[in-house]
Amino acid sequence: MIYALLSVHEKAEKLNLLLSTIKGISQTDLMAVSYKEIAAVVSCQKETDIIADKNKVLEYAGVIDQLAQHFTLLPMRYGSSMESNEAILVMLKINYTEIHQNLLKVENKNEFGLKIFCDTQKLHTQIRAESEINSSLNNGLEDQPANSVFKDYVNKKLREHRLEELMISYVDALIAEISIYLDQFHAFYKFKKMTTSNNIIDAVFLLDKEKQTELVSAIETLQHRYPDLNVVLTGPWSPFNFVEITIK
Predict the structure, then answer these.
(1) Total-model pTM
(2) Sign of the C-alpha dihedral, residues 46, 49, 241, 206?
């Protein structure tokens, strides 16, 4: 079972010493399979041991967290495994260039998560008040009888459509504002929007470790600018969302 791929350089002895002090899932011993300056941290597991449950996933994440305190690494998904150490060594050789490039990308960087929540009804009311949505609903419907069912239905659908467009524009503007801060930090970032009715932004950032204080300050500024939103920053994490390797 593979926990992470590490950049070891001249730290092989340090890695072996660290692995002697921590355990893998189900209290198994950890070892390193190395190729050049890259090492895979692994443990020998029975297939039944790999079946996920909450405790094992937490143990797995705990190993990665401890390794990340000392080494640049690419965390692997829970359950990543190969049949033998020899097979892992072959994998490291074949994918060496791509692994090396990804390790350089995340070196001295941490991942952070950002979620922005809102009271949907309150935000809708605010957006309506700031727009001309109600003043232009009847365009194109003048020929319909004043109280027709058709006109009521189309008005309702048109209002919903325009409100949705305004919501998307609002979220896009918010993402653009956050991106300005992140570009100043030379960060990598990924955004998802409208993941649920209340979670309007779900993002991950990868930036230099020494920029953490500046990031926290920027997010606090954002929260003050938008007091009706709930801005939640999490991290630092290992770069789970920025590992871009297709294992051959």
Answers:
(1) 0.75
(2) negative
